[in-house]
TrEMBL record:
This is TOG domain-containing protein. GO terms for cellular component: microtubule cytoskeleton. GO terms for molecular function: microtubule binding. Residues 17-67 are annotated as: Disordered. InterPro entries: ARM-like (IPR011989), ARM-type_fold (IPR016024), CLASP_N_dom (IPR024395), TOG (IPR034085). The gene is Clasp2. Residues 53-67 have a biased composition (Gly residues). Residues 90-304 form the TOG domain.
């Protein structure tokens, strides 16, 4: 009889142990909101990311976590300059070339390879020093619609080239790419839930490049609005993008939208999706670095279960 009772007690404890590690049934202690540990300066991104986490393609990174067909930031950097060499002899020639590019990209009846080559031509011009010509920026504004159309293309190769091109523009032009970035970011977020890995990961990588190189406050509402998207992958990647933004940008670029950032992070901590909640919690440290008072108020407003 004693042996039978001992066996039942052991079985009961074993069952409790299984429950405590079940990802779908976290203990109350594990689910509590904790202030994230500060990220080490040497590797601010990798220390905050868990490799192999489920759901949606990651926003770039050193490994292709999106699976077969995925692209990452290293692929983009190689493609920036892996284009035909061109020379610019005059402003007039540059204007004519940009007009031709816009004509091709604005008409989806052109063969897809023509459209892909036109996008590469923009990068060729950047490599050749097009940004040194004043007329380039005037024509770049006229290309906003054509670039958006390319990022919406049904051909994954065209979408990939469009994302690489806007990422290159952001990298070279920085804040001078403000209007282009503002125009293209909503379209890039629409690519995130795409079932084609090359499209989804291209959109994610382009968003990262823009966040790193084009620090324009008007981009903040475009990101925070996607944090409440009906799409779970979009919400996850939006909070991940917000985390990167808080790491990369200066406080003066964020001050106008401090209240929106706080409210967005608060909603994220209560998100219905577990991974979105994790990504939202990671943004807290960045918020505290910029706005310690607002971050403290947010922390104190949370229920103990968070």
């Amino acid at each position: 009889m004693r042996r039978l009772i001992c066996k039942r007690i052991c079985d009961y404890k074993s069952f409790d142990d299984e429950e405590s590690v079940d990802g779908n049934r976290p203990s109350s202690a594990a689910s509590a909101f904790k202030v994230p540990a500060p990220k080490t300066p040497g590797n601010p991104v990798s220390s905050a990311r868990k490799p192999g986490s489920a759901g949606g393609p990651k926003v770039g990174g050193p490994s292709k976590e999106g699976g077969a067909g995925a692209v990452d930031e290293d692929d983009f950097i190689k493609a920036f300059t892996d284009v035909p060499s061109v020379q610019i002899y005059s402003s007039r020639e540059l204007e004519e070339t940009l007009n031709k590019i816009r004509e091709i990209l604005s008409d989806d009846k052109h063969d897809w390879d023509q459209r892909a080559n036109a996008l590469k031509k923009i990068r060729s011009l950047l490599v050749a020093g097009a940004a040194q010509y004043d007329c380039f920026f005037q024509h770049l504004r006229l290309l906003d619609g054509a670039l958006k159309l390319s990022a919406k293309d049904l051909r994954s190769q065209v979408v990939r080239e469009a994302c690489i091109t806007v990422a290159h523009l952001s990298t070279v032009l920085g804040n001078k790419f403000d209007h282009g970035a503002e125009a293209i970011v909503p379209t890039l977020f629409n690519l995130v839930p795409n079932s084609a890995k090359v499209m989804a990961t291209s959109g994610c990588a382009a968003i990262r490049f823009i966040i790193r190189h084009t620090h324009v406050p008007r981009l903040i509402p475009l990101i925070t609005s996607n944090c409440t998207s009906k799409s779970v992958p979009v919400r996850r990647r939006s909070f991940e993008s917000l985390d990167l933004l808080l790491q990369e940008w200066q406080t003066h670029s964020l001050e106008r939208h401090a209240a929106v950032l706080v409210e967005t992070i608060k909603k994220g901590i209560h998100d219905a999706d577990a991974e979105a909640r994790v990504e939202a919690r990671k943004t807290y440290m960045g918020l505290r670095n910029h706005f310690p008072g607002e971050a403290e108020t947010l922390y104190n407003s949370l229920e103990p279960s968070y």
